[in-house]
Write a structure and sequence with these properties.
The chain has 125 residues and is mostly beta strands. It has one helix and six strands, in the order βββαβββ. A six-stranded mixed sheet has the order 3-2-1-4-5-6, with helices on one face. A hairpin with a 5-residue loop joins β2 (18-25) and β3 (31-35). It is globular, with a radius of gyration of 19 Å. The model is unreliable at 97-103 and 113-125 (pLDDT under 50).
Length: 125
């Protein structure tokens, strides 16, 4: 079982909900990002352990909770405000996939994958 210190988080753009967490493995310092679902799976199956060091030197375990049938991650109650995970800094943006010229690729849905903009001769043309 690996132990990870959560160092940053990515929130959903519209909701106060964790999408992923950035971590450093204790002992090796190896950095890794986990989606919320991956972290939940690791915690529930005893694969990995996560904690937040807030304030410095005060470790608080990350646990799985459930609200209205939806699982999410949070820290154990420690009497501190604000929320330990949400108060972490935002994780750096993920690297964009680039083509050979270094420019980002634009992906357009194929006609077989649903609605196609009318400018491309699809539905509503």
């Amino acid at each position: 079982m690996a132990t990870y210190q959560v160092t940053c988080r990515e929130k959903h753009s519209l909701y106060e909900r964790i999408v992923s967490i950035g971590c450093a493995e204790v002992g090796t310092g190896t950095k890794r990002r986990f989606t919320e679902d991956e972290a939940i799976n690791c915690i529930e199956h005893g694969i990995d352990d996560f904690f937040v060091d807030r304030p410095a030197g005060h470790r608080v375990r990350v646990i799985v909770a459930e609200h209205e049938g939806r699982k999410y991650i949070k820290t154990e109650a420690d009497g501190e405000k604000p929320n330990n995970l949400l108060s972490l800094p935002e994780c750096p943006a993920k690297k964009q996939e680039a083509n050979g010229s270094g420019h980002r690729r634009t992906v357009v849905s194929a006609p077989s994958h649903g609605d196609v903009p009318s400018a491309l001769g699809g539905w509503g043309a």
